[in-house]
Amino acid sequence: MSDSKFGLILPTSGEILEERENFISKSFKPLHTGFGVTLGNSLRRVLLSSIKGVAITHVNIEKIYHICTSVIGVKEDIMHILPALQNIIFSMNTSAQKVTLSVKGKCDVYASMINHSNSVEILNPDLYICSLDEDGELHIEILLQKGFGYVESASMPAEVIMGTNTLALDNISFSPIKRVGFEVLPMRVGLHINYDNLILDVETNGAINPSDAISEAAKILSEQFLSIADGDINDNLIENEKPSSIDISMNNRLYDLVDSMPLSPRARRCLRALKIIHIGDLVTTTKEELSKVTQCGVVTLEEIQSRLYESYGFSLGMKIDWPINKESSKIMRGGE
Length: 336
Known about the structure:
With about 325 residues, the chain is α+β, with helices and mostly antiparallel strands. The chain folds into three domains: about 1-50 and about 180-235, Gyrase A, domain 2 (2-Layer Sandwich); about 50-175, Beta Complex (RNA Polymerase Alpha Subunit, Chain A, domain 2), CATH 2.170.120; about 250-335, DNA polymerase, domain 1 (Orthogonal Bundle), CATH 1.10.150. The chain has eight helices and 16 strands. The protein has helices at about 35-50, 80-85, 210-230, 235-240, 265-275, 280-285, 285-290, 300-310, and strands at about 1-5, 10, 15-20, 25-30, 50-60, 90, 95-105, 105-110, 120, 130, 135-150, 150-155, 165-170, 170-175, 175-190, 190-205. The strands form six sheets. Strands 3-4-16-15 form a four-stranded antiparallel beta sheet. The protein has a four-stranded antiparallel beta sheet with strand order 7-11-5-13, with no helix packed on it. Strand 15 (about 175-190) and strand 16 (about 190-205) form a beta hairpin. Helix 1 packs across helix 3 (about 210-230). The longest helix has 19 residues, at about 210-230. It is elongated, with a radius of gyration of 28 Å. Residues about 235-245 and about 325-335 have low confidence and may be disordered.
């Protein structure tokens, strides 16, 4: 927990409440009243609409000129094969790529049978597509493209060449995000009970890590907001990356002993392990340094941050020219 230059409390980077395959639930706290809904709704909309994904946009099926038909020797008709193809989850490091599916003879066809380059990965290779009889033969050229969100149809890139009987798919979903939900709970910070705790749940299709998706959505929002803020975007980014600072000559409370704060025995042992004696020692210590102490878990770290803010209005990792060595335990308040 730290202060912004506008006097508002900034939340932590996100405490993981639950994590399993392709799903994560994170808590962002504390937030000033109303910011839980503001941030939760913004992140949800960006996650659902603006995270890049891969989808099939065009197919070229040999001897097929429209979707209302069938292929000799193939049990399913084209109207059933195309939705099956659209359910395949791809990952790709190029903007567009052609892949092919060529099968012949009696067999069940799965996504793993698609031929592709090393720049493409199929994340659900066991997905069933169709079945062929002994005389069945199926040859499909598939165009993959990267895009955002949901579109009714996509145009073919100029550099891609496909046959004249190419079918353009509709109802295309590029988004790798399957579900986003958020909840805002009240929480207490010191004597104040009107702060927000934002709980964000994100589930993806496996093409992107849920935690990475949240970070990407936050960066997209930051870029959009900075573009309409006064001044140059890069200047604002640099300014925001600067840690908070204190004029040590104007704040003698930095010489207070950390024992003056109401901390639990576990939190005190954590500070002693790092030889943190004065408040100045504590504010120049980062969350990462505290987290390395065995006894300093998430709850203990949150307690230390909360008590420091409640008692002094300071946060961890602040930039000050602190003259006292943390190894020394003999220096008293005011340099006595």
